[in-house]
Amino acid sequence: WNKGTTNIVTSVAGDILINPNYKDRVTLNVLTGSLELRNLAVSDTGEYGVSITPTAGDASITGQATLNVYEPVTNVRITTNNTDLVEFNDTVRLSCSASGSSLSFLWFNDSVEVTASDRVRITDGGATLTIVTVLRYDQGSYTCEVSNLVSSNRVRLTISPSAEYYGEGSVVSFSCSADSRPEAQFRWFINGEMSSSTGAQINLVMEQSGNYSCRAFNSKTLRYTTSQPEEISVLSKNISGSTNKKTYRFIPVEGTSVNLTCDASGSIFTRKWMISGVELKPSENIVFHEEKRVLSFRNLTRKDDGRYTCRISNPVSSQSVNYTMNVNYGPDSVQISGPMEVQEGSTLKLSCSAESVPTAKYTWTKDGTTLGQSHEYTKDNIKFSDGGEYICQATNDITMKSSEASPTGLSTGAVIGITVASLAAVAGAATGAFYMFKHK
Which domain of life is it from (predicted)? Predict the structure, then answer.
C-alpha cells in the first residue's frame, strides 16, 4: 500500500513491513489485502494505491482510492464592526469564524434563516453577513451555523427575559441546547472565564456586565462546541445623587454667575433639570455643560428663585435630587411713608421699606445725626426744631449694597421734608408775625 509515492506497508511471503511513520496506526489483512488506517488526521487526505501479485511471475493487480479527512467544526465565533446602531444610518457587518475544514456557513435571525437581498449581503463563502442601512426590524439574536460533511456546530443560547439592560440583582434564566448523542454536558462562561454553573438551564443573579456563553461537550466523541457569546449590560438600580455648587461658600446673589452641579454614583444615562416640575430649556441665561451635569446661570436674577430638581435615570432606575435656591438682591425702591406736616407737641411716626432679600436693615438720620436703626422712627412731643429732612438708609448684609439719601436727593434712598406748625393762640398782628417767624 502506498500514499502517493510513499510506501505504507508491504507484505512478502507472510512478512509485513510497516513504514515507521505509520507504526501503531495501520493493520494489513493478508487474506483480503485490506488496509485499516486509524487515528485519522487531515494530513491523511490523499490518493491511496494498492498493488497485489498473486504468485511470483504473475501480473500485478492494482487499485486506487481517494481519502478525504475532515476536521470537526469547533470554536465558532462571531465578531461585529458595530453594536450601537442608528436606524437608516449605519451598516453592520457580522463575521463568523471557526476551526475545521471544508466549512459551510448558514446565518439565522431568531431561528429564521437569513438570505441575501438588496440590503443583506452574504460574502466570503457565507462567513460574512452585511446589512446595509439597518432598520429596527433587523433586531434580533443572530446565529452562525458552521458545518462540514462530518459535523456541524450550532449551540443555541436563550435568555429570558430578553432585555437590552438588566437591573443589578435581577434574576435571568439562561438555556443552552445542542444537537448531540449522547446528550451534551454544559458549562457556562462569563467573559471567557468558566463559572461554577453547569446544566442546560441556569438562573443567574445579575452582578456584572459582560459576555455570557455556554459550552456543550460530548463525552463520547470528546468534542465540544461553544455558543456565540451574548453581551449583557447590567445596570445599578441604586443611583445616589447630590446637587452642589462649585464655590466653597455659595450665596446666590443677583447679577452674579452660578453653577449647579448634579453628581451621582451608579450607571447614569440621562439627567434632566426642572424647576417646580417644569423642565428647563437652554436660553440666553441658562446653559448646560457636560451632558447636563452642570446647570449654569450667566446672570442670576430674582426671578430664578425656586426649587430645582435634577432627575438622574437609567433604563432600570431613577432618582431625583432637589436644591432650593433663594436669590439675594437689593435693597431697591426705598420708600418712606409718614406725614409731611405735623403739629407741635404731637407724635411723629415714619416708616421705611425696601425691596430686599434678606430683609434690609434701616438707619434714620437728620442733619448728619443718627436717630435710630429700625424700619420705623417715632418721636413724641415734636418741636419746631424737629422740622427738616429725614433720611432713611437701607442696607443688605449679604449683597453688601445699600441705598441711602442725601439732602441733595442724588442717591436712590428716601428723603422726607417735614414742617412743624405752631398751635399757640396769640391775638392780633403779633400772632401772625410769630407764626410766620417760627414757621420760617
Answer: Eukaryota
124 and 209 inside one domain:
yes
Choose one of 209, 235, 261: the last residue of a domain: 235
Report the amino acid identity of residue 227. S
State the Cα–Cα distance between residues 178 and 168, nearest whole angstrom: 30
Tens digits of residue pLDDT in 215-232: 999 888 788 888 878 888
From 435, 421, 423, 420, select the one nearest 390 (Cα to Cα): 420
Round the CA-based radius of gyration of the chain to a whole number and report it.
48
Please count the CA atoms within 13 angstroms of the CA of 422 that sit on its side-chain side.
13
Domain count, the chain: 4
Q: Are residues 286 and 344 in the same domain?
A: no
Which triple of cell numbers denotes residue 195?
463559572
Torsion from C-alpha of 404, 410, 412, 417, nearest 10 degrees: 70
Cβ-in-10-Å burial (0-12, 13-18, 19+) of 257 comes to exposed
305: left (phi over 0), alpha (psi -120 to 50) or beta: beta
CB 170 within 8 A of CB 191: no
Question: pLDDT tens, 178-207?
Answer: 877 788 899 999 988 888 889 999 998 888
Q: Residue 63 and residue 57: Cα distance in Å, rounded?
A: 19
CA-based max dimension of the chain: 183
Helices (H), 55-205: none
Which pLDDT does position 101 carry in this prediction? 84
Low-confidence ranges of the chain (pLDDT < 70): 56, 153, 155, 237-249, 404-440
Burial zone of 153 (CB within 10 Å; 0-12 exposed, 13-18 middle, 19+ buried) = buried
